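Design request, tokens follow.
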């Protein structure tokens, strides 16, 4: 993982930074290497995943994918609100976003012991002279 130095309100902080993006094709190829499914079949499934998740969440449900996490829709109300409960309506939502909670496990004491898509160890390197992909 990379970081850049950033100054905010007179103080310096590290800011995490990505250097590139992997696409659907790369994910499909990696998944096919660790399974018995071809890269082409995996790619086709991944292309349909967004539409399927949207359809399932549109019904007011969350979608939990084992080994990955849970996706759900969140409505953002616009404006200043209304004065009475009777005035509240779905028309007040101006934006819908997707929220995601990575899958995790807990120990007997309640502490989080693992997160599937968050690496256990991250090495931070200052981003100087590294070119974006």
């Amino acid at each position: 993982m990379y970081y850049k130095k950033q100054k905010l309100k007179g103080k310096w902080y590290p800011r995490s930074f990505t250097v590139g993006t992997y696409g659907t094709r790369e994910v499909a190829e990696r998944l096919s290497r660790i399974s018995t499914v071809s890269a082409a079949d995996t790619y086709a499934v991944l292309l349909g995943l967004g539409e399927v998740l949207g359809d399932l969440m549109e019904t007011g449900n969350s979608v939990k994918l084992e080994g990955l996490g849970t996706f759900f829709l969140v409505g953002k109300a616009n404006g200043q609100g209304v004065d009475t409960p009777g005035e509240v309506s779905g028309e007040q939502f101006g934006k819908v976003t997707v929220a995601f909670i990575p899958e995790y496990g807990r120990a007997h004491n309640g502490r989080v012991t693992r997160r599937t898509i968050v690496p256990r160890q991250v090495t931070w390197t200052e981003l100087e002279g590294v070119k974006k992909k």
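Comment from the thread starter after seeing the answer: thanks! The longest strand covers residues 93-102.
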